[in-house]
């Protein structure tokens, strides 16, 4: 039978209890179509590739969502900075880290003591994008 099974990440994203704009943001990010400054600069647009928030590093998805001082502060306040630090150590792309966080097994998410952790992660990532 020629049908393909959809990637489970898409089912997870569309099931999230959060605004559609957040789901679309996650979808765009995972497809690598988020117009971060590094991406725009690589496409020869006249924009500095540096992060507009910290000016310390090139703004790609990984920096914007996980490595920027602002992002680190958000994740630390939410109490999930250790999980994110471990994911970043594996040297994954920002998109892969976000996908990893959204599909974490329920037992790993329960440890954090929150309800709706996936929604919190998705909305926080959207907030970091929007706030910049």
UniProtKB/TrEMBL annotation:
Q: Which Pfam families match?
A: zf-RVT
Q: Which InterPro entries match?
A: RVT-Znf
Q: Start and end of every Reverse transcriptase zinc-binding domain?
A: 5-75
Q: Know the name of this protein? A: Reverse transcriptase zinc-binding domain-containing protein
